[in-house]
Amino acid sequence: MRADRYRVGFVGAGGVAARHASVLAGFPDVAIVGVVDPYADAARSLSEKFGATVEESVDDLLALEPDAVYVCVPPFAHGPAEAAVLAAGIPLFVEKPLGLDAELPQQLAARIVAADVVTGVGFHWRYSAAVARARDILDGHRVSLVAGTWLDKVPPVGWWPRRDGSGGQLIEQAVHVVDLARVLVGDVTEVYAVADAAPPDVPDADVDSSAAATLRFASGAVGTLSTTCRLGWKHRAALEIFADGIALAISEEGCEVRTTEGNEWHPVDPMDAKRAVDRAFLNAVGGDREGLRVDYPDALRSHQLACALARSASERRPIDV
Ligand SMILES: NC(=O)c1ccc[n+]([C@@H]2O[C@H](COP(=O)([O-])OP(=O)(O)OC[C@H]3O[C@@H](n4cnc5c(N)ncnc54)[C@H](O)[C@@H]3O)[C@@H](O)[C@H]2O)c1
């Protein structure tokens, strides 16, 4: 067996691709073999750093016969790369969000299920020890109330402030929190979101500045979600969960618990979950799917929920999910 058991290709060589590549380069059994990005500087920089070749197209990348491909493109650019990788039957890691809307990801998910291709998705919060702790504490308790927040700045990438670039904050950012709510509290049956449609104060922006939403869970629990991109800093991205005698707050930094017995704080290193999501995917590529906590078809359900929230805000009406 080769030392580099997993030969990985990248489609998209921006910020998140660089993070995955650094994590993968820290594993003893991974080689990054090729990079595709229409922005030549990004492709060159990532490939030089990790000893990979720059490829002109996804087909050229696939000609290197990688064991897995990471698709780290902006929301508007999903589709062609995934389709080509799936056609080649190669395992696929896709960064969130899966697309600008639900239609294309639904089609891709159907192909993934039919072909039983190994997939991973960048919902790395699922791999956090803070989430595991929350799950343990909530075990056997009925959640009554959920409060999600994503209070942040406009990220410094040109595609973000445009609806046709990012899909907006509910789809692009809050989907992490929406995903956690689904995992810890269960399916959502109805959402109603209202938005401050005034765009943030950056050039060419047309996304909503803020949104406030309510969610009804199948279990009977209810929830809220508050988002804004009008701050100059990342203020808070978290999910609070309330059950009889339990108040939990989960963030990328840890899980804060208050019960009738007292308070606990379980800090975590946010990089641990980011490493774990890549390791679990590669293990699945190698045949061990045990540790894979979220694949594309599962992630699709959280993406559909985020899309329903965005549609509710734009159509100004409650939506049955
Ligand atoms: N899970 C997470 O924590 C996390 C963190 C950051 C970003 N993301 C997600 O990752 C995605 C990319 O974000 P980013 O910060 O890396 O953006 P970025 O703008 O830094 O990088 C995206 C790169 O993709 C390239 N690209 C555009 N169209 C392409 C195409 N058709 N084929 C190949 N490359 C293409 C761009 O030229 C750019 O270099 C976004 O959807 C974002 O939401 C996830």
UniProtKB/TrEMBL annotation:
Listed InterPro entries: Gfo/Idh/MocA-like_OxRdtase_N, Gfo/Idh/MocA_Oxidoreductase, GFO_IDH_MocA-like_dom, NAD(P)-bd_dom_sf
All copies of domain Gfo/Idh/MocA-like oxidoreductase N-terminal, residue ranges: 7-123
UniProt domain GFO/IDH/MocA-like oxidoreductase: residue ranges: 143-242
Highest taxon listed in the record's lineage: Bacteria
PANTHER family xref list: D-GLUCOSIDE 3-DEHYDROGENASE (PTHR43249:SF1), UDP-N-ACETYL-2-AMINO-2-DEOXY-D-GLUCURONATE OXIDASE (PTHR43249)
UniProt protein name: Dehydrogenase
Organism: Cryptosporangium japonicum
